[in-house]
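User: Fold this; tokens only.

Assistant: Input:
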Amino acid sequence: MDTVYIFLQHYWWFIISLLGALLVFLLFVQGGQGMLYLIGRTDTERNLIVNTLGRKWELTFTTLVTFGGAFFASFPLFYSTSFGGAFYVWMLILLVFVIQAVAYEFRRKPSNFLGEKTYNWFLLINGVLGAFLLGTAVATLFTGAPFTVGLVTGLLHTFMGIPAILAGILTQLALYSINLKIMGKANQSINVDKYGLLISLRWVKEFALHNPIIMVILATAVVIGVLYWFFGTELGCGIRATGSNPAMSRAQGINTNFNIVLGLAVSNALVALSGALLSQYQGFADVGMGRGAIVIGLAAVIIGEAVFGRIFHNFALKMASVSIGAIIYYIVIQLVLTLGFDANLLKLLSASVVAVFLAVPYWKGKYFSKPVKKAKEDAKNA
């Protein structure tokens, strides 16, 4: 019985992975629609683009429906959790794909009372929002709609003018009550025998696809790949520019408030996905399990940047360095504890490790950089 159960798990994961990969590939239709006015300068050019994509849009929609049906048949808890917590996201997905179908059907009809430009905008909306909303929905398959958390934080900061740090604190304070309400109690067990979990501590010694180490590596690779693609788009580049230099971004006509809200929403979705995987791995969820996570996240970023900053120049590798930085952080912590460090001082140790790695770039610039001789500078200026 266990052999059949494991076989069915692997079989359905293969089917879902295959359908998901096919869906991602077919999203080039949405990519073409999103660039309808960027590439097509005239009505003739836009008509050529639409005619090229119009033969393939049905494949994307059919694959999406099949992907959802396969998820419902194989992992109904994931499916119901996503639809229960991200109901409005799925309704928006349905809406943008319905207007796509209507646009392709009635765009060039003689009796079209809305006008061709209206349906062109329908295709543009589907191209921009379709892929983004699908990514949002996939991120909520485990935890409902954490996307909303970042949205609230962003609106508190941009719409209400509350400072960014204080907006995050207020949202975190409100989430404590929401988490208690959702969980029903402060600590909730997640038994692998009762639920169809993606990873579990029980499988850590098994050499199989559901081994936590293998599964986390695969999940990390998928997330990095999706983020690499997203931040390479025009919208993603706008978010990166907003983070680097908001003033210059506003001067270039970028809506920085929108990008701040969107960036916070995406980051909180990733945080929620990480928390869901951790809860499944350890077999329980606790209302206070996120305390101190910001220190670990900061340590992962700083350590990855300090160790691999001059080695990794590709954006995807920079994101991978964050994961490697987290591994290095835990290796250092475990090494110190093995040497007999008092476990009661673990938080002090964590803060010290982060402080040291934060100071490394400063020490490099101040004490180890080669001084520029003033005589040479005067000669160059002369």
